[in-house]
Design goal:
This is HNH endonuclease. GO terms for molecular function: endonuclease activity. Keywords: Endonuclease, Hydrolase, Nuclease. The protein is an alpha+beta fold and 96 residues long. It has one domain. The protein is 29% helix and 15% strand. The protein has 4 helices and 3 strands, in the order βββαααα. A 3-stranded antiparallel β-sheet has the order 1-2-3. The longest helix is centred in the middle third of the chain and has 10 residues. It is globular.
């Protein structure tokens, strides 16, 4: 099914359900977002589930304004909806 991505805004794209609070951190019945496959993969390559909770990235606005994902969002918004880039795992270590 084709929808719009609630993170990058591209459409029409195939979307997946992203639990804004990871299920393993108690988010099974909390809000979700429909994200395109590249955005969903990018979130999970940049952040661990623990990062998402401890950094307060459990809503779309917080995700959109986090310094680690902003460059990606600027780039992906310029890509055709059919683009599904290869995502590499980030080796960036967040300072405590």
């Amino acid at each position: 099914m084709n929808h719009h991505c609630e993170l990058c805004g591209r459409e029409p794209v195939e979307t997946t359900v992203h639990h804004l609070t990871p299920k393993e951190m108690g988010g099974s019945f909390l809000p979700t977002a429909n994200l395109c496959i590249p955005c969903h993969k990018q979130i999970h390559s940049l952040y661990t589930n623990r990062d998402l909770v401890t950094l307060g990235l459990t809503d779309l606005q917080s995700l959109r304004t986090d310094e680690r994902i902003i460059p990606y969002l600027r780039w992906i918004r310029k890509q055709p909806a059919s683009t599904i880039p290869r995502v590499r795992k980030s080796h960036h270590v967040r300072k405590s």
